[in-house]
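User: My instructor asked us to take a sequence, write out its structure as tokens, and then describe one feature of it. I'm not sure where to start. Here is the sequence I was given:
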Amino acid sequence: MISEKIRAHHLERKALLYVRQSSVHQVLHNRESSALQYAMQGRLRALGWSEIEVIDDDLGRSAAGGVQRAGFERMVAEVCLGKVGAVCAREVSRFARNSRDWQQLIEMCRVVDTVLIDQETVYAPRQGNDRLLLGLKGSLNEYELDLLRQRSLSARHEKARRGELVVGAPVGFVKAGDRYEKDPDQRVQQAITLVFDKVQELGSARQALLWFHEHDLELPVKQSNGDIAWRRPNYSSIHRMIENPIYGGAYAYGKTAVAAGYGAAGVRVKTRRKARGEWLALMPNAHEGYVSWEKSEAIRIMVSNNVPTSRHHGAPKHGDALLAGLIRCRRCGRKLTLRYSGLKHAIPRYSCSRGWMDNGEPRCIAFGGLRVDDAIEDALLGIVGPGAIAAAVAAEQEGGQQRDQVRAAFLRDLEAARYTADRAFRQYDATDPANRLVAGELEARWNKALARIAEVESKIAAHDAARPVPAADPALLATLATDLKTIWAAPTTDARLKKRIVRTLIQEVVADIDPQAAEIILVVHWIGGVHSEIRLPRRRRGQRNSTSADVIVAVRQLAFIANDDLIAGILNRNSLVTGHGNRWTRERVTSLRSHHRIPLFKAADDGIEPWLNLSKAAHLLKIAPKTLRLAAEAGEISAVHPLPDGPWIFNRAALSSPAARAIAGRARHNPKYPTGSHPDQKNLFSSIT
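Assistant: Let's start with the prediction itself. The structure tokens for your sequence are:
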């Protein structure tokens, strides 16, 4: 029966049948609903339309307004052009589930006089009653959708609060009913455990990633179909494992929130991560994890603290400065910035210049970092020293018991590759040789699997061929532990390891400068809550690497009797070095004398030297050198002995004193003391002692 609302000008235009289902699951499984919607073409023909166009572009798209619908937009555009006499759907809710789209469609149909048709009746938007009815139906549809959504979300959230809502399992886990279980594949388990061990050992996710790349190891990833694939790891894959509490044995839900945004491209859905306090559920120890919950949280906090912000110290870098990211200005509270200078860019300098760079404020403080790091180093080694021997022995025992992680990973890869090759061979062996289309493909898969075995075996051989690290002798470890300063200053000691030790014991260092006393004030905040203050005198540039004052005094005294060549030899014989740790040469002694204005040794023209060495002084007194040396050691005569393995220096005036004459007379008349050699006896070798 043709409705009276349908006029001739409606039938002259075409009719649009709008077909839509809300999800892909409904499209695949709710076939009856789709068939009923397409059957509405018969109703349109019964009403008198001969030209019918079906719009089914929006199959699998929701009508709630958060998803862009190309089919609905095309339908509205056709209506606006006046080419459509009727728009039809099985139910009115198929058109829209939100008031904005629904009212837009009704208004356009009213303007161009287009009727709306469903399985029950025909609506004419130009009639007030029908327009009111359509508005009520649209509001009810929107309310119904909200009610259904609220009910489903409420039930979903209640199940999540009980820890029973398991949506999807990340790599390393499988769903077992309402809980997670570890993947039964031992290769997957060992790989994920290795990730957490390496991040904890190396201190950052990036260093762990570089370690995996260095040894060419792969990590498992879960594909969209649920299968496990092995790929070269990237930073995001490692960071996701660290941030996900499921690997620590905790159940978590509601970690993200979805927000709709509107832009030039239409509606755009964004996903943002919520703070941990806003999560819907977080239940530690809900299932078996790859690490304990405490260890998982410690690793997560360590990695999050590697971000260099005002609250965090940042990850340890390769630079030699110990307090990078740890030192703060006492005057403004900002962290001190660090820069390196010098010929090799190895001289650190701390400065409070953040206010100047950001806001143009005057700089607060600045000072060299070498002496500051030395003071922190001494304080740190003084605390670590008592337990150094026990820690060294324990570390050696643990290192001896620890298996080779890289080789174990390669062996797991080899076992998996052999299984894949064996499976490919069985498939190839079971096929009909005459069917070359199938046999050729299976043969190619078998060859590919065999090539993978050869590749892994070559990696194992290369790893075994590498020079093994010799095990340290426990006695040597105990000896080295007593001299932590040597180990700490060794060139082979990694700067990042030293910084990690510093950050383990020191929370923060607050620095200031006392201009009146010309001192650097450091307040060290230790992890245990104890605070200590260190005051260091400010020095001018280069003084930290200056020559020791004892060496300068010795050179000043040796210059009385020796030239620069002899002084360099005496200093080297006593194992003394320059301020930069170099051996002494004639040029370096000359430079030291010139800098400190020490006069050059020059022999007297008349042969009467004001200063004599031991041999010449003994010859002058006509006694044995040993007699004179013993007298000098006993303090009976004034003499200078600058270095333990060096010459004795006597003043000629002291050799004319009554004490010197008494020593000479006693040596000649007392047989207990040796006398000097005969004056006419010549010595084959000249001596400076």
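For the description part of your assignment, you could build on this observation: Residues 399-403 have pLDDT under 50 and may be disordered. Try explaining in your own words what that tells you about the chain.
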